[in-house]
Amino acid sequence: MKKNSFLNDILQNTSCPQGFWGRMILRGMNCFHASLARRGMKQVDWRPEWNVLDIGCGGGANVKRLLKLCPQGKIYGMDLSEESVAFARRHNAGELDRCCFIRQGDVCSLPYGDEAFDAVTAFETVYFWSPVSKALAEVFRVLQKGGCFLISLEASDPELGKAWTERIKGMTVYGAEDLKRLLSKAGFSDIRVIQKKEELHIVAHK
């Protein structure tokens, strides 16, 4: 990472939001990632009864969207950041602990049973999964047979991504082919890639 600066310190909150600047980042995520999330969600044929896990749920806006797409199911949000969990819970307070469940956890050791979900989503978060192979294996484990995994990213060019990865500790930008290879190695099949410039959506199945 380049020499520390005030901006670099703030940007660290993109991976694990904390404190005042973390809350500011979460508000921004709910707003500025909305279009990406909507385009990604259009790539999946949602069923109203599905149980879905949103990994790296951040400010909770996508949990709220998933509640509308799967009104007869249950939506689970999980994030490594305590700040994110608290923020997402407030954002979904009306449905919390009824059909919406949000908790802290690590993608490399998901706190859920085998085949617990019909679908798993990951919006703007795979950059921070480490080791990514272990994280993808965990996603595969908690998906039901035939279940789908949606990844949506704004950055998918490792070279262009250096503008971010040189500032944000622990961030890795993956190309579409890299992710396809990693997903296949984790056991996923029927991997579909939707890409427009740097924006990338991948739908993979167990």
Give an overview in words:
The structure is a single chain. With 206 residues, the chain is α/β, with parallel strands linked by helices. The chain has helices spanning 6-11, 19-32, 34-41, 61-69, 82-91, 132-142, 162-165, 176-186; strands at residues 52-55, 75-79, 100-104, 117-123, 143-153, 189-196, 199-205. A seven-stranded mixed β-sheet has the order 3-2-1-4-5-7-6, sandwiched between helices. α5 links the parallel β2 (75-79) and β3 (100-104). α6 (132-142) packs across α8. The termini are far apart. The model has no long low-confidence stretch (mean pLDDT 90).
Short description:
By secondary structure, the chain is α/β, with parallel strands linked by helices. 35% of the residues lie in helices and 23% in strands.
Topology record:
Layout: H1 6-11, H2 19-32, H3 34-41, E1 52-55, H4 61-69, E2 75-79, H5 82-91, E3 100-104, E4 117-123, H6 132-142, E5 143-153, H7 162-165, H8 176-186, E6 189-196, E7 199-205
Parallel strand pairs: 1-2, 1-4, 2-3, 4-5
Antiparallel strand pairs: 5-7, 6-7
Helix pairs in contact: 6-8
Q: What multimeric state do the chains show?
A: single chain
**Structural class of the helix and strand makeup?**
alpha/beta
Helix content: 25-40%
Q: Say how many strands there are.
A: 7
Q: Could you list the spans in which at least 5 consecutive residues all have pLDDT below 50?
A: none
What proportion strand?
15-25%
- Largest sheet, strands/sense/barrel: 7 strands, mixed
Outline type: globular
Total number of helical segments? 8
How confident is the prediction overall: mean pLDDT?
90
Over the alpha carbons, how many angstroms does the gyration radius reach?
Answer: 16 Å
Strand order, sheet with most strands: 3-2-1-4-5-7-6
Order of helices and strands: HHHEHEHEEHEHHEE
End-to-end distance? 36 Å
